[in-house]
Amino acid sequence: xxxxxxxxxxxxxxxxFVVIYLSLQxxxxxxxxxxxSMQARSFPIFLMVINLMxxxxxxxxxxxxxxxxxxxxxxxTWSSMLxxxxxxxxxxxxxxxxxxxxxxxxxxGLTWGQKKVWISLVNAIATPLSVFLLFDYVLQVxxxxxxxxNIYYG
Length: 154
What we know:
By secondary structure, the chain is an all-alpha fold. The chain has seven helices and no strands. The chain has helices spanning 7-24, 31-34, 42-64, 74-94, 97-111, 117-138, 147-153. The chain is flat.
């Protein structure tokens, strides 16, 4: 029975190695296009290395203690799936994922039981804003044009 637990870490490990392999197949971009920013293949490789480290931690936790049975949350799970569909529709309608992300994050916080509305609101605004600024200033990656990004990029 304990061997069944390692199916998920094994799948995640194989997935990570496939993504790394496929990323290494991408050609490097010329210096005049990339400039000082990251190559197109660097970011997925970076994410998969982090994923492999987390899989190692997960496997170690499984080895040390057998996880307890988890009771499935019916309402939050199905409502989250519905919110992902709403996210897709909002992106298509507004043309900008930075319009859809705060709305869906706010609703998801309330769906999963956040009692304080202001915490969900702050989280829904601060998280996409910090992700946008991280990608724009640190990683120097521009997002596709949309309603809000057009205002920012000019």
